[in-house]
Amino acid sequence: MKTTKQTHNIFNIKSLQKLLMLTLLSSLLISFAGCGSDSSTSVDNNPNQNNEGNEEPVENQEANEVWMDGNAFNVSNLEVEAGTTVTWTNKSNANHTVTSGERGADDAGELFDSGSISPGGVFSFTFDEAGTFAYFCDFHPGMDAEVTVTEE
After folding, report:
1. Long-range pairs for 100-107 at CB < 8 Å and ≥24 separation?
2. Any idea which fold 61-150 has?
3. Which Pfam families match (predicted)?
4. Would the pTM of this model clear 0.85, i.e. be above it?
5. Which pLDDT does position 48 carry in this prediction?
6. Any idea where the domains of the chain sit in the sequence?
7. What 8-state DSSP symbol labels residue 8?
8. HSE-up of 125 (CA within 13 Å, CB side)?
9. Where are the beta strands (DSSP E) in 6-150?
10. d(CA 147, CA 133)
11. Residue 111 Cα distances to 77, 108, 128, angstroms
12. Do residues 73 and 133 touch, judged by C-beta distance below 8 A?
């Protein structure tokens, strides 16, 4: 015959097991919630210069968009007019940053700094003044590029 104390211990163990299973299930559901993809892309046949210097259309990429793909920015020197908003989209499986300036410089990140951009995330910045603006990924050495801004 079970005592009252044994019954409570069995109840507590079963309750604890249920709670652990619900916690695990909730964690898995939250993890998978961000794994979807956005299928609402537009096709823009404007040529963009890729890292190899080739002029070729990049399907589904906007004219003022730079993709982070692998450990590279797929447009190493984007040219835009003053007042243009540039958008960086993380198409890789790793986190990246878009940090203004030269790597290691005292003023790095002063003009803009995206912080960590997760896969699928985006960052935008509007360039109001003409000039050449270097930027880099703080996480990946050698992942450097620039935006050249011309007068309107």
Report:
1. 100/133, 100/134, 100/135, 101/134, 101/135, 101/136, 102/134, 102/136, 103/136, 103/141, 103/144
2. Immunoglobulin-like (2.60.40)
3. Copper-bind
4. no
5. 36
6. 61-150
7. H
8. 20
9. 47-49, 55-57, 65-69, 72-73, 77-81, 84-90, 99-100, 122-127, 131-136, 144-150
10. 5
11. 18, 8, 11
12. no
**Structure tokens given for 128:** 């109001």
Tracing tokens 């299973």 back to the chain, one arrives at 21
Give the three-state DSSP class for 85.
strand
Tell me the average pLDDT of the chain: 78
Which residues of the chain are modeled with pLDDT < 70? 1-13, 15-16, 18-59
Tens of pLDDT, residues 70-96: 999 999 999 999 999 999 999 999 999
Q: Which residues have C-beta within 8 Å of that of residue 113, sequence separation ≥ 6?
A: 97, 98, 99, 100
- Amino acid in the structure at residue 35: C
**Cβ count near 78 (within 10 Å):** 23
- 3-class DSSP state for residue 83? coil
